[in-house]
Protein backbone atom coordinates (compact mmCIF):
# COMPACT_ATOMS: atom_id res chain seq x y z
CA UNK A 1 0.00 0.00 0.00
CA UNK A 2 0.99 3.60 -0.43
CA UNK A 3 -0.71 6.90 -1.18
CA UNK A 4 -3.61 6.74 -3.59
CA UNK A 5 -1.94 8.63 -6.40
CA UNK A 6 1.11 7.88 -8.53
CA UNK A 7 4.23 9.42 -6.97
CA UNK A 8 7.31 8.95 -9.16
CA UNK A 9 9.81 10.92 -7.14
CA UNK A 10 10.17 12.54 -3.73
CA UNK A 11 12.36 15.64 -3.66
CA UNK A 12 14.01 17.07 -0.57
CA UNK A 13 15.46 20.42 -1.61
CA UNK A 14 18.08 22.02 0.65
CA UNK A 15 17.02 25.60 -0.01
CA UNK A 16 14.03 27.61 -1.18
CA UNK A 17 15.90 28.31 -4.42
CA UNK A 18 16.29 24.59 -5.06
CA UNK A 19 12.61 24.01 -4.30
CA UNK A 20 11.62 26.66 -6.85
CA UNK A 21 13.99 25.12 -9.42
CA UNK A 22 12.47 21.67 -9.00
CA UNK A 23 8.94 23.08 -9.19
CA UNK A 24 9.86 24.99 -12.36
CA UNK A 25 11.42 21.92 -13.94
CA UNK A 26 8.38 19.72 -13.37
CA UNK A 27 5.84 22.56 -13.50
CA UNK A 28 2.59 20.73 -14.06
CA UNK A 29 3.51 17.41 -12.52
CA UNK A 30 4.94 18.69 -9.20
CA UNK A 31 3.25 19.50 -5.93
CA UNK A 32 4.52 20.97 -2.68
CA UNK A 33 4.24 18.90 0.49
CA UNK A 34 4.84 20.12 4.05
CA UNK A 35 2.67 18.55 6.76
CA UNK A 36 1.01 16.32 4.15
CA UNK A 37 -2.33 16.22 5.93
CA UNK A 38 -4.22 17.68 2.95
CA UNK A 39 -2.38 16.09 0.06
CA UNK A 40 -1.87 12.50 1.28
CA UNK A 41 -5.55 11.59 1.72
CA UNK A 42 -6.45 12.73 -1.81
CA UNK A 43 -7.73 10.02 -4.10
CA UNK A 44 -7.44 9.54 -7.87
CA UNK A 45 -10.09 11.37 -9.80
CA UNK A 46 -9.27 14.61 -8.00
CA UNK A 47 -8.02 16.71 -10.88
CA UNK A 48 -5.41 18.35 -8.72
CA UNK A 49 -3.72 15.08 -7.87
CA UNK A 50 -3.98 13.08 -11.08
CA UNK A 51 -1.19 15.08 -12.67
CA UNK A 52 1.11 15.16 -9.63
CA UNK A 53 4.05 12.75 -9.85
CA UNK A 54 6.71 14.74 -8.02
CA UNK A 55 6.41 15.76 -4.38
CA UNK A 56 8.64 18.60 -3.23
CA UNK A 57 9.09 18.56 0.55
CA UNK A 58 9.49 22.04 2.04
CA UNK A 59 9.14 20.93 5.66
CA UNK A 60 12.89 21.03 6.34
CA UNK A 61 13.77 24.41 4.84
CA UNK A 62 13.68 26.30 8.13
CA UNK A 63 10.24 27.70 7.35
CA UNK A 64 8.87 26.90 10.81
CA UNK A 65 9.24 29.99 12.96
CA UNK A 66 7.33 32.77 14.68
CA UNK A 67 8.94 36.19 14.93
CA UNK A 68 7.89 39.61 16.10
CA UNK A 69 9.41 42.39 14.01
CA UNK A 70 9.05 46.14 14.46
CA UNK A 71 5.89 46.51 12.41
CA UNK A 72 4.64 42.96 11.86
CA UNK A 73 4.56 39.41 13.15
CA UNK A 74 5.97 36.73 10.83
CA UNK A 75 4.72 33.16 10.70
CA UNK A 76 6.85 30.75 8.67
CA UNK A 77 4.65 28.90 6.18
CA UNK A 78 5.69 25.47 7.47
CA UNK A 79 4.92 26.26 11.13
CA UNK A 80 2.56 23.66 12.55
CA UNK A 81 -0.88 24.89 13.52
CA UNK A 82 -0.34 23.68 17.10
CA UNK A 83 2.89 25.66 17.40
CA UNK A 84 1.12 28.80 16.24
CA UNK A 85 -1.93 28.17 18.40
CA UNK A 86 0.16 27.74 21.55
CA UNK A 87 2.33 30.80 20.94
CA UNK A 88 2.01 33.59 23.53
CA UNK A 89 2.13 35.99 20.56
CA UNK A 90 -1.43 35.11 19.64
CA UNK A 91 -3.01 34.13 22.94
CA UNK A 92 -4.15 37.62 23.77
CA UNK A 93 -5.55 40.46 21.78
CA UNK A 94 -5.41 41.85 19.21
CA UNK A 95 -4.63 38.44 17.70
CA UNK A 96 -6.95 36.22 19.76
CA UNK A 97 -8.88 35.11 16.68
CA UNK A 98 -5.79 33.30 15.41
CA UNK A 99 -5.45 31.05 18.45
CA UNK A 100 -9.25 30.53 18.46
CA UNK A 101 -9.04 29.33 14.86
CA UNK A 102 -5.98 27.17 15.51
CA UNK A 103 -7.83 25.42 18.33
CA UNK A 104 -10.90 24.84 16.17
CA UNK A 105 -8.96 23.38 13.24
CA UNK A 106 -9.29 19.55 12.94
CA UNK A 107 -7.83 17.74 15.98
CA UNK A 108 -4.74 18.11 18.15
CA UNK A 109 -3.09 15.11 16.47
CA UNK A 110 -3.53 16.47 12.94
CA UNK A 111 -2.49 19.97 14.03
CA UNK A 112 0.91 18.58 15.10
CA UNK A 113 1.65 18.12 11.40
CA UNK A 114 -0.75 20.42 9.51
CA UNK A 115 0.91 23.73 8.70
CA UNK A 116 -0.34 27.30 8.61
CA UNK A 117 0.85 27.78 5.03
CA UNK A 118 -0.72 24.51 3.95
CA UNK A 119 -4.10 25.52 5.31
CA UNK A 120 -3.93 28.68 3.16
CA UNK A 121 -2.50 27.04 0.01
CA UNK A 122 -5.22 24.38 0.01
CA UNK A 123 -7.54 27.38 -0.43
CA UNK A 124 -10.53 25.52 0.92
CA UNK A 125 -13.73 27.60 0.98
CA UNK A 126 -13.96 26.78 4.70
CA UNK A 127 -10.26 27.00 5.66
CA UNK A 128 -10.21 28.07 9.30
CA UNK A 129 -6.99 30.08 9.39
CA UNK A 130 -7.89 32.19 6.35
CA UNK A 131 -10.56 34.08 8.27
CA UNK A 132 -8.56 35.61 11.14
CA UNK A 133 -5.77 36.39 8.67
CA UNK A 134 -8.31 38.14 6.43
CA UNK A 135 -9.51 40.45 9.20
CA UNK A 136 -5.90 41.05 10.29
CA UNK A 137 -4.96 42.10 6.71
CA UNK A 138 -2.14 39.58 6.45
CA UNK A 139 0.40 39.76 3.63
CA UNK A 140 1.67 36.51 2.14
CA UNK A 141 5.25 36.23 0.93
CA UNK A 142 5.86 33.82 -1.94
CA UNK A 143 9.09 32.85 -3.71
CA UNK A 144 9.23 32.05 -7.41
CA UNK A 145 11.74 32.04 -10.29
CA UNK A 146 11.59 35.86 -10.42
CA UNK A 147 12.24 36.30 -6.72
CA UNK A 148 9.86 37.10 -3.89
CA UNK A 149 6.49 38.75 -4.16
CA UNK A 150 3.93 39.96 -1.66
CA UNK A 151 0.30 38.97 -1.98
CA UNK A 152 -2.36 40.62 0.20
CA UNK A 153 -4.47 37.79 1.59
CA UNK A 154 -7.62 39.30 0.10
CA UNK A 155 -6.34 38.60 -3.41
CA UNK A 156 -4.84 35.20 -2.55
CA UNK A 157 -7.99 33.09 -2.84
CA UNK A 158 -9.17 32.74 -6.44
CA UNK A 159 -11.69 29.91 -6.28
CA UNK A 160 -12.52 26.72 -4.43
CA UNK A 161 -9.14 24.99 -3.82
CA UNK A 162 -7.45 27.47 -6.11
CA UNK A 163 -5.02 30.17 -4.99
CA UNK A 164 -3.01 32.98 -6.56
CA UNK A 165 0.22 30.97 -6.27
CA UNK A 166 1.76 29.90 -9.56
CA UNK A 167 2.80 26.29 -9.97
CA UNK A 168 6.46 27.10 -9.50
CA UNK A 169 5.96 29.25 -6.42
CA UNK A 170 6.38 28.39 -2.73
CA UNK A 171 4.66 30.22 0.10
CA UNK A 172 7.35 31.34 2.55
CA UNK A 173 5.79 33.48 5.19
CA UNK A 174 2.63 35.09 6.51
CA UNK A 175 3.04 38.65 7.78
CA UNK A 176 0.54 40.18 10.14
CA UNK A 177 0.78 43.95 10.55
CA UNK A 178 0.98 44.91 14.22
CA UNK A 179 -2.37 46.33 15.21
CA UNK A 180 -3.58 48.64 17.91
CA UNK A 181 -4.13 47.30 21.41
CA UNK A 182 -7.62 48.75 21.08
CA UNK A 183 -8.40 46.03 18.54
CA UNK A 184 -10.26 42.90 19.54
CA UNK A 185 -10.59 39.87 17.25
CA UNK A 186 -12.58 36.69 17.51
CA UNK A 187 -13.24 33.51 15.52
CA UNK A 188 -16.23 31.18 15.69
CA UNK A 189 -16.88 27.92 13.88
CA UNK A 190 -20.08 25.97 13.59
CA UNK A 191 -19.70 22.28 12.80
CA UNK A 192 -21.96 19.29 13.18
CA UNK A 193 -20.15 18.01 16.27
CA UNK A 194 -18.40 20.74 18.15
CA UNK A 195 -15.52 18.65 19.45
CA UNK A 196 -14.98 16.25 16.58
CA UNK A 197 -12.97 16.57 13.41
CA UNK A 198 -15.18 18.14 10.79
CA UNK A 199 -15.15 21.02 8.39
CA UNK A 200 -17.13 24.15 9.14
CA UNK A 201 -20.80 24.51 8.29
CA UNK A 202 -20.07 28.21 8.69
CA UNK A 203 -17.00 29.93 10.16
CA UNK A 204 -16.45 33.62 10.79
CA UNK A 205 -13.77 35.95 12.12
CA UNK A 206 -14.34 39.53 13.19
CA UNK A 207 -12.24 42.42 14.36
CA UNK A 208 -13.25 45.68 16.00
CA UNK A 209 -11.10 48.65 16.88
CA UNK A 210 -12.97 50.89 19.27
CA UNK A 211 -12.47 53.91 21.42
CA UNK A 212 -15.15 54.60 24.00
CA UNK A 213 -17.73 52.46 22.20
CA UNK A 214 -17.05 54.34 18.96
CA UNK A 215 -15.96 51.89 16.28
CA UNK A 216 -12.93 53.09 14.36
CA UNK A 217 -12.55 50.05 12.12
CA UNK A 218 -14.32 46.74 11.65
CA UNK A 219 -13.50 43.52 9.85
CA UNK A 220 -15.84 40.62 9.13
CA UNK A 221 -14.66 37.53 7.24
CA UNK A 222 -16.95 34.66 6.26
CA UNK A 223 -16.08 31.06 5.41
CA UNK A 224 -17.92 28.08 3.91
CA UNK A 225 -20.55 30.37 2.36
CA UNK A 226 -18.90 31.13 -1.01
CA UNK A 227 -16.24 29.53 -3.26
CA UNK A 228 -13.62 31.48 -1.28
CA UNK A 229 -13.35 32.94 2.22
CA UNK A 230 -14.05 36.66 1.90
CA UNK A 231 -14.65 39.96 3.72
CA UNK A 232 -18.26 41.13 4.11
CA UNK A 233 -17.55 44.72 3.13
CA UNK A 234 -21.11 46.08 3.31
CA UNK A 235 -21.53 44.87 6.86
CA UNK A 236 -18.11 46.25 7.82
CA UNK A 237 -18.94 49.69 6.46
CA UNK A 238 -22.08 49.83 8.60
CA UNK A 239 -19.93 49.52 11.72
CA UNK A 240 -16.99 51.76 10.82
CA UNK A 241 -17.46 55.12 12.50
CA UNK A 242 -20.66 54.05 14.25
CA UNK A 243 -21.40 54.03 17.96
CA UNK A 244 -21.53 50.36 18.88
CA UNK A 245 -24.83 49.10 20.20
CA UNK A 246 -26.73 45.84 20.25
CA UNK A 247 -28.91 47.09 17.39
CA UNK A 248 -26.12 48.09 15.03
CA UNK A 249 -24.28 44.81 15.64
CA UNK A 250 -27.45 42.88 14.87
CA UNK A 251 -27.95 44.92 11.69
CA UNK A 252 -24.39 44.31 10.55
CA UNK A 253 -24.79 40.59 11.23
CA UNK A 254 -27.94 40.43 9.08
CA UNK A 255 -26.19 42.37 6.31
CA UNK A 256 -23.26 39.93 6.44
CA UNK A 257 -25.74 37.08 6.00
CA UNK A 258 -27.09 38.82 2.88
CA UNK A 259 -23.58 39.01 1.47
CA UNK A 260 -23.11 35.25 1.88
CA UNK A 261 -23.62 33.06 -1.20
CA UNK A 262 -23.76 29.57 0.25
CA UNK A 263 -24.68 26.31 -1.46
CA UNK A 264 -26.63 23.28 -0.25
CA UNK A 265 -24.38 20.36 0.54
CA UNK A 266 -24.00 17.34 2.80
CA UNK A 267 -23.25 19.54 5.82
CA UNK A 268 -26.11 22.05 5.63
CA UNK A 269 -28.56 23.80 3.37
CA UNK A 270 -27.90 27.21 1.92
CA UNK A 271 -30.78 28.72 3.89
CA UNK A 272 -29.50 27.34 7.18
CA UNK A 273 -25.99 28.61 6.48
CA UNK A 274 -27.30 32.11 5.84
CA UNK A 275 -29.19 32.11 9.12
CA UNK A 276 -26.13 30.87 10.96
CA UNK A 277 -23.93 33.57 9.42
CA UNK A 278 -26.12 36.17 11.14
CA UNK A 279 -25.89 34.37 14.49
CA UNK A 280 -22.15 33.71 14.34
CA UNK A 281 -21.26 37.21 13.15
CA UNK A 282 -23.32 38.75 15.97
CA UNK A 283 -21.69 36.56 18.61
CA UNK A 284 -18.23 37.05 17.19
CA UNK A 285 -18.65 40.84 17.08
CA UNK A 286 -19.80 40.77 20.69
CA UNK A 287 -16.68 38.74 21.56
CA UNK A 288 -14.47 41.16 19.66
CA UNK A 289 -16.05 44.08 21.50
CA UNK A 290 -15.42 42.46 24.87
CA UNK A 291 -11.86 41.76 23.84
CA UNK A 292 -11.10 45.35 22.95
CA UNK A 293 -12.07 46.21 26.47
CA UNK A 294 -15.27 48.04 25.55
CA UNK B 1 9.95 5.27 -9.60
CA UNK B 2 12.95 6.48 -7.64
CA UNK B 3 13.52 4.89 -4.22
CA UNK B 4 14.27 7.09 -1.24
CA UNK B 5 16.94 6.11 1.28
CA UNK B 6 15.85 6.78 4.85
CA UNK B 7 17.14 6.14 8.35
CA UNK B 8 14.56 5.98 11.10
CA UNK B 9 14.66 4.99 14.74
CA UNK B 10 11.70 2.82 15.65
CA UNK B 11 11.20 1.68 19.25
CA UNK B 12 14.84 2.33 20.05
CA UNK B 13 16.33 0.57 17.03
CA UNK B 14 17.73 2.28 13.92
CA UNK B 15 16.67 1.03 10.49
CA UNK B 16 18.11 1.95 7.10
CA UNK B 17 15.56 1.40 4.37
CA UNK B 18 14.93 2.20 0.73
CA UNK B 19 11.28 3.17 0.40
CA UNK B 20 9.00 4.07 -2.48
CA UNK B 21 8.35 7.81 -2.74
CA UNK B 22 4.63 7.22 -2.18
CA UNK B 23 5.00 4.93 0.85
CA UNK B 24 3.40 6.24 4.00
CA UNK B 25 4.92 5.75 7.43
CA UNK B 26 2.23 3.20 8.30
CA UNK B 27 3.14 1.12 5.22
CA UNK B 28 6.74 0.91 6.35
CA UNK B 29 5.86 0.14 9.98
CA UNK B 30 3.41 -2.62 9.11
CA UNK B 31 4.72 -4.12 5.88
CA UNK B 32 8.47 -3.66 6.18
CA UNK B 33 9.09 -3.78 9.94
CA UNK B 34 6.21 -6.14 10.73
CA UNK B 35 4.97 -3.83 13.49
CA UNK B 36 1.30 -4.59 12.96
CA UNK B 37 0.20 -3.16 16.30
CA UNK B 38 -0.37 0.12 14.50
CA UNK B 39 -3.70 -0.22 12.70
CA UNK B 40 -4.96 1.38 9.54
CA UNK B 41 -8.60 2.43 9.77
CA UNK B 42 -9.73 5.07 7.33
CA UNK B 43 -6.37 5.93 5.78
CA UNK B 44 -7.32 9.57 5.53
CA UNK B 45 -6.80 11.07 8.97
CA UNK B 46 -10.30 10.79 10.36
CA UNK B 47 -10.09 7.80 12.72
CA UNK B 48 -6.76 7.97 14.56
CA UNK B 49 -6.23 4.18 14.62
CA UNK B 50 -2.76 4.67 13.10
CA UNK B 51 -1.55 7.18 15.73
CA UNK B 52 2.13 6.78 16.68
CA UNK B 53 4.60 9.11 18.42
CA UNK B 54 7.06 10.91 16.16
CA UNK B 55 9.76 12.79 18.05
CA UNK B 56 7.45 12.67 21.07
CA UNK B 57 4.37 14.04 19.33
CA UNK B 58 1.19 12.15 18.52
CA UNK B 59 0.86 11.98 14.73
CA UNK B 60 -1.14 9.97 12.21
CA UNK B 61 1.13 7.52 10.42
CA UNK B 62 -1.25 7.39 7.43
CA UNK B 63 -0.70 11.10 6.79
CA UNK B 64 3.10 11.11 6.77
CA UNK B 65 5.30 9.97 3.93
CA UNK B 66 7.90 7.47 5.12
CA UNK B 67 10.45 9.66 3.32
CA UNK B 68 9.46 12.59 5.52
CA UNK B 69 10.18 10.60 8.69
CA UNK B 70 13.85 10.35 7.76
CA UNK B 71 16.00 11.01 10.83
CA UNK B 72 13.03 10.86 13.20
CA UNK B 73 12.43 8.84 16.34
CA UNK B 74 9.24 6.81 16.23
CA UNK B 75 7.50 5.02 19.05
CA UNK B 76 4.73 2.51 18.32
CA UNK B 77 2.56 0.47 20.67
CA UNK B 78 5.11 -2.37 20.52
CA UNK B 79 7.81 -0.12 21.95
CA UNK B 80 5.81 1.26 24.84
CA UNK B 81 6.39 -1.61 27.23
CA UNK B 82 9.83 -1.69 28.84
CA UNK B 83 10.78 -4.99 30.45
CA UNK B 84 8.36 -7.74 31.38
CA UNK B 85 5.62 -5.51 32.78
CA UNK B 86 3.01 -3.70 30.72
CA UNK B 87 3.26 0.08 30.44
CA UNK B 88 1.00 1.96 32.94
CA UNK B 89 -1.26 3.03 30.05
CA UNK B 90 -1.67 -0.57 28.89
CA UNK B 91 -2.31 -1.71 32.45
CA UNK B 92 -4.90 1.01 32.98
CA UNK B 93 -6.73 0.12 29.74
CA UNK B 94 -6.90 -3.49 30.95
CA UNK B 95 -7.90 -2.55 34.51
CA UNK B 96 -10.67 -0.23 33.32
CA UNK B 97 -11.84 -2.62 30.56
CA UNK B 98 -11.39 0.32 28.22
CA UNK B 99 -11.72 -1.71 25.03
CA UNK B 100 -13.99 -4.12 23.25
CA UNK B 101 -12.73 -5.03 19.80
CA UNK B 102 -9.44 -3.25 20.47
CA UNK B 103 -8.86 -1.93 16.95
CA UNK B 104 -8.72 1.69 18.10
CA UNK B 105 -6.73 0.93 21.27
CA UNK B 106 -3.12 1.19 20.02
CA UNK B 107 -3.94 4.58 18.49
CA UNK B 108 -5.70 5.76 21.64
CA UNK B 109 -2.83 4.67 23.87
CA UNK B 110 -0.21 6.33 21.68
CA UNK B 111 -2.26 9.54 21.56
CA UNK B 112 -2.58 9.42 25.36
CA UNK B 113 1.14 8.69 25.79
CA UNK B 114 2.11 11.85 23.91
CA UNK B 115 -0.40 13.84 25.96
CA UNK B 116 0.88 12.59 29.33
CA UNK B 117 4.50 13.23 28.32
CA UNK B 118 3.59 16.83 27.54
CA UNK B 119 1.05 17.33 30.30
CA UNK B 120 1.64 14.95 33.22
CA UNK B 121 -1.60 15.94 34.97
CA UNK B 122 -4.26 16.33 32.30
CA UNK B 123 -7.81 17.07 33.42
CA UNK B 124 -10.80 15.21 32.03
CA UNK B 125 -11.63 17.81 29.41
CA UNK B 126 -8.07 17.83 28.09
CA UNK B 127 -8.13 14.05 27.81
CA UNK B 128 -11.49 14.09 26.03
CA UNK B 129 -10.33 16.73 23.58
CA UNK B 130 -7.11 14.87 22.99
CA UNK B 131 -8.85 11.57 22.27
CA UNK B 132 -11.31 13.22 19.89
CA UNK B 133 -9.13 12.19 16.96
CA UNK B 134 -9.49 8.52 17.94
CA UNK B 135 -12.75 6.97 16.86
CA UNK B 136 -14.11 4.08 18.87
CA UNK B 137 -17.11 2.36 17.33
CA UNK B 138 -17.88 -0.09 20.13
CA UNK B 139 -17.28 0.88 23.73
CA UNK B 140 -17.33 4.66 23.64
CA UNK B 141 -15.09 6.97 25.55
CA UNK B 142 -16.04 6.86 29.24
CA UNK B 143 -13.68 3.99 30.06
CA UNK B 144 -10.73 5.08 27.90
CA UNK B 145 -10.93 8.53 29.49
CA UNK B 146 -10.93 6.93 32.96
CA UNK B 147 -8.01 4.72 31.95
CA UNK B 148 -5.90 7.64 30.72
CA UNK B 149 -6.69 9.54 33.90
CA UNK B 150 -5.60 6.57 36.01
CA UNK B 151 -2.45 5.99 33.94
CA UNK B 152 -1.41 9.63 34.26
CA UNK B 153 -1.70 9.30 38.04
CA UNK B 154 0.21 6.01 38.10
CA UNK B 155 2.95 7.38 35.87
CA UNK B 156 3.38 10.38 38.14
CA UNK B 157 3.63 8.14 41.20
CA UNK B 158 6.15 6.00 39.33
CA UNK B 159 8.35 9.00 38.73
CA UNK B 160 8.04 10.13 42.36
CA UNK B 161 8.69 6.65 43.75
Which features does this protein show?
heterodimer; A: 294 residues; alpha+beta; Uridine Diphospho-n-acetylenolpyruvylglucosamine Reductase, domain 2; Uridine Diphospho-n-acetylenolpyruvylglucosamine Reductase, domain 3; Enolase-like, domain 1; 5-stranded antiparallel β-sheet; globular; B: 161 residues; Ubiquitin-like (UB roll); DNA polymerase, domain 1; 2 domains; 5-stranded mixed β-sheet; 35% helix
Helix content class of chain A: 25-40%
SSE sequence of chain A, one letter per element: EHEHEEEHHHHHHEEEEEEEEEHHH
The number of helical elements of chain B comes to 5
Global outline of chain A: globular
Under CATH at level 1, the class of the largest domain in chain A stands as: Alpha Beta
Structural class given helices, strands, pairing of chain A?
Answer: alpha+beta
How many structural domains of chain B? Answer: 2
CATH architecture of the largest domain in chain A: 2-Layer Sandwich
Query: Which residues of chain A sit in consecutive blocks of at least 5 with pLDDT less than 50?
Result: none
Number of beta-strand segments of chain B:
5
> At the first level of CATH, what is the class of the largest domain in chain B?
Alpha Beta
Description:
The complex is a heterodimer of chains A (294) and B (161). By secondary structure, chain A is α+β, with helices and mostly antiparallel strands. Chain A has three domains: 9-57, 2-Layer Sandwich (Uridine Diphospho-n-acetylenolpyruvylglucosamine Reductase, domain 2), CATH 3.30.43.10; 66-177, Uridine Diphospho-n-acetylenolpyruvylglucosamine Reductase, domain 3 (2-Layer Sandwich); 183-291, 2-Layer Sandwich (Enolase-like, domain 1). Chain A is 32% helix and 25% strand. In chain A, a hairpin with a 2-residue loop joins strand 12 and strand 13 (214-223). By secondary structure, chain B is of the alpha+beta class. Chain B has helices at residues 25-32, 88-95, 105-118, 124-130, 142-160, and strands at 4-10, 13-19, 51-54, 57-60, 73-75. Chain B has a five-stranded mixed sheet, with helices on one face. Chain B is globular, with a radius of gyration of 16 Å. Chains A and B meet through helix 6 of A and strand 4 and helix 4 of B.
